[in-house]
Structures are given as structure tokens and as C-alpha cells.
Design goal:
Helices cover about 30% and strands about 20% of the residues. The protein is of the alpha/beta class and about 375 residues long. The strands form 2 sheets. Strands 14-13-12-11-7-10-9-8-15 form a 9-stranded mixed beta sheet, covered by helices on one side. It has a 6-stranded parallel beta sheet with strand order 3-2-1-4-5-6, sandwiched between helices. Strand 2, helix 2 and strand 3 form a beta-alpha-beta unit. The chain is globular and about 65 Å long. It starts with a strand and ends in a 17-residue tail after the last strand. It binds nicotinamide-adenine-dinucleotide (NAD). The site of nicotinamide-adenine-dinucleotide has 20 residues, from loops.
Length: about 375
């Protein structure tokens, strides 16, 4: 039996997924807010133990693993405390809020030898995984350019309903740069297997919000990969516009994928094949759904219960991967180094945008990283 503790109410997105896996039980819940704690405990049901203080849950919660879904600035201190206490960790995005924190996190995962999974859920979107399979099958040729956009006006989240200022005013929109990059970077990196981001350069039109927050009115980060590929990440959480939190584009030597840009649009692909026999002709779009044969088996065979967990089964598969990694005692694909690299795109972008778009080198996050590489190089 794997006993899990959840910290922060957002962690309840894993509830149905965890409940549908055999020999896994949520035994503890932690939230600083008494009311949130009560509501969460009622949703979990059974004899779940509740704690307001995270360290108390680690000590007295009788748990093997913890899901950290507290505000971003709590992730690294809580993850390190959990690893030190011998617990496995699944952490919400982003992995941390400073570069030093990211280095400490990697060191702690190595030191305490526990499983750490970075819970970047958009990676599990069926479209992303289907396009990954199509890349592997060579349909797009060699991918060389991708885009990810996260356009989400979060003005309603800066103040809680009780009038208190929320952490998002400081740790998200109180900072410069592409502060929330992983929902865009993570998915597109699925299409560049074995590659990693080596450079980040960020531009913004400036700060136009009238709320007195420091965040740019949209940022565009250009990321170069070790293999020389280009990735463009646009994040805008301040401008007045409808949401589009999951727009993606991929271009390869033989074709491209473009996700739907608004609710009436559709996900589309175009590649050189029998109908589009030459890149010199005006190539035609096809619906991505015509290529569902490339959807990974676990999406095709998802049970009703798995789909009900949320987001077409994505909310189940993320939990499934974490529990599998714990059972097999091996780090998951979304390991600490991956989480840190994707998070660092945002942290480095703040330096870049405040220095006229200067290119900042990405450290190579990996096991036993030498101390003299744990620095930011301009
Ligand atoms: N993956 C996604 O799609 C997604 C979506 C939304 C939020 N998030 C992430 O989830 C996390 C939480 O976001 P949210 O929107 O739920 O924030 P929120 O402010 O609405 O909720 C945070 C909860 O954590 C509790 N909390 C705060 N500090 C705590 C502490 N030290 N110990 C225990 N509990 C504490 C608060 O009382 C509150 O209930 C953030 O890291 C955010 O980036 C991810």
C-alpha cells in the first residue's frame, strides 16, 4: 500500500486518479486554511488525517509520498523537507522560484534518493502525445521549430474572495519575464526527444497593466536547444482577452501541426504525402483527429473511470506515472532535472527581459552537476 499526503487544495485534482489505482490511499491532507482543509477532507472522505502545518503532516501523517500543490514559493522548501523525511514527492508547477532553489532541489533528490516527479499536466494532453507519436513515425520529417502559448488573464486571482492579496501578485505577476513557462515549454519539448534548452532570450512590449504590478504585458521567450532547434514561448497573464492556455505549433522538414486557436477552430496538420505531394504546391490542412491511430494506447484504451479523473484521462495518467515510478523505484520521465530546466526558462527570462533581451545560457541540469556550473552565464 502506498500512502499519500496532499498539501494544498489544488492537489485534489489527483483525487480521482489516486482513488482508481489499487493499493494507493490518501491518508493525510494539509492546508494552512482551516476552511479549505475541512472542505478537502470531506471530499477525500474516509479517515483522512488533517494538518495545517506541512512538517506536522510529514511527521505524523503516516505517508510514503506527498503531492505538493501549495503556492509556487512553497514548493522547494516543502519538497526538500519531504525528501529529507524520506517521502517521495510529486510537485505542482513551477518547480521553484529562484535558480538557487532549483540547484538545492536537484541536490536533495540525489542526496535522499527518493522519487521526485514534476507534475506538468499539459504534457499529458492527448494532442501533445499524439503529435509526439507522429513525430516518432517521421510524418513531420525533422522538427526544427515549435511554439507554445499560454494566454490567460488572471486578474481575478490577485485578490482572494476574502479580500486578502494572493501569492500570485508577488510570485507570478510581481516578477518580470515569462514567469509561468512550463505549460508551454513542457509540451513542445515532447517533440524534441533527447534535446534540451541551452539558451533563452526574452522580449516584452513593456508593462501596460493598470494594477501597479511589475509583470510585462506579455513576453516572448526564444529558446535555442542543444541541437540548434528554435522554440518560441509566449506567456501573457495580464492583457484583456479570452483565454487560450494551450496553443501549440510544430514545424518540421515535411510538415506541421497547429492546434486550435479558439473554440470554433480545429487542431490541424499538413504534411507532404499522396495528397500534398510537394512542398512547392499550396499544401492543404487535415484534421488531427484523422490520425487518431497515432494516439498512444493508454489514451485509446482509457477506461471511463480514468477519463472521469479529468482532462480526457490526463489527470489519471500523471498520477499513474508517479505511482509507477514509486513502485519501480526509478525516477519518472518528468524528473527533477526536466522540471528544473523548464522552470528555469522563466527564471532566466526575467534576467533577459530586464537586459534588453540578452541571451542567457541555461545550466545543464543533471546528476552530480559540478558546483562551478551552478551559475548563470551571460
Ligand atoms: N497544473 C495546473 O494546471 C495548475 C493550475 C492551477 C494552479 N497550479 C499550481 O498549483 C499551486 C496552487 O495554486 P492554487 O491556484 O490552488 O493557489 P491557491 O492560492 O488558490 O491555493 C493554495 C492553497 O494552499 C494553501 N497553502 C498556502 N500556503 C501553505 C502552506 N505553507 N502549507 C499548506 N498549505 C498552504 C492555501 O491555504 C490554499 O488553500 C501553485 O503552485 C500553482 O502554480 C497548477
Amino acid at each position: 500500500m502506498i500512502k499519500v499526503g496532499i498539501a494544498g487544495t489544488r492537489g485534489l485534482s489527483t483525487l480521482m486518479g489516486l482513488n482508481s489505482i489499487e493499493d494507493v490511499k490518501i491518508t493525510a491532507m494539509c492546508d494552512l486554511d482551516e476552511e479549505h482543509l475541512k472542505t478537502a477532507a470531506a471530499r477525500i472522505g474516509g479517515d483522512v488525517r488533517t494538518f495545517r502545518v506541512f512538517d506536522d503532516m510529514l511527521e505524523k501523517g503516516d505517508i510514503d509520498a506527498v503531492i505538493i500543490a501549495t503556492p509556487m514559493q512553497c514548493h522547494v522548501p516543502q519538497a526538500i523537507a519531504a525528501l529529507e523525511a524520506g517521502k517521495h514527492v510529486m510537485s505542482e508547477v513551477t518547480a521553484g522560484v529562484t535558480m538557487d532553489e532549483l540547484f538545492w532541489l536537484c541536490e536533495s533528490v540525489e542526496k535522499y534518493n527518493k522519487i521526485y516527479m514534476f507534475a506538468e499536466n499539459v504534457v499529458f494532453d492527448p494532442r501533445i502525445q499524439q503529435v509526439k507519436k507522429m513525430v516518432e513515425a517521421g510524418l513531420f520529417g525533422e522538427p526544427y521549430y515549435a511554439e507554445g502559448m499560454y494566454l490567460h488573464n488572471i486578474a481575478d486571482l490577485f485578490v482572494y474572495p476574502n479580500g486578502k492579496t494572493s501569492w500570485r501578485s508577488y510570485w507570478q505577476c510581481g516578477t518580470r519575464g515569462t514567469f509561468y513557462p512550463t505549460h508551454s515549454v513542457g509540451p513542445v519539448m515532447q517533440w524534441f526527444a533527447g534535446d534540451r534548452i541551452t539558451e533563452v532570450s526574452t522580449f516584452s512590449p513593456g508593462v501596460y497593466n493598470t494594477l501597479g504590478l511589475k509583470q510585462d504585458s506579455g513576453t516572448t521567450s526564444m529558446c535555442r536547444t542543444a541541437n540548434g532547434k528554435l522554440i518560441c514561448i509566449r506567456v501573457d497573464c495580464m492583457s484583456p482577452r479570452p483565454h487560450n492556455t494551450d496553443f501549440f505549433h510544430l514545424q518540421g522538414t515535411k510538415g506541421c501541426f497547429t492546434s486550435k486557436a479558439h473554440p470554433d477552430d480545429y487542431n490541424r496538420v499538413s504534411f507532404i504525402d499522396d495528397e500534398n505531394d510537394s512542398p512547392l504546391h499550396n499544401m492543404k490542412w487535415k484534421k488531427l483527429e484523422e490520425y487518431e491511430i497515432y494516439l498512444p494506447d493508454r489514451y485509446k484504451n482509457a477506461t471511463e473511470e480514468q477519463i472521469k479523473a479529468g482532462h480526457n484521462g490526463s489527470d489519471f495518467f500523471i498520477v499513474e506515472d508517479f505511482i509507477k515510478a514509486v513502485r519501480e523505484n526509478r525516477q519518472p520521465d518528468l524528473d527533477v532535472y526536466t522540471g528544473c530546466e523548464w522552470t528555469a526558462v522563466g527564471l532566466l527570462s526575467a534576467l533577459s527581459v530586464t537586459n534588453g533581451g540578452r541571451t542567457i545560457q541555461m545550466p545543464h541540469f543533471r546528476k552530480n552537476m559540478p558546483l562551478d556550473e551552478k551559475k548563470i552565464t551571460l
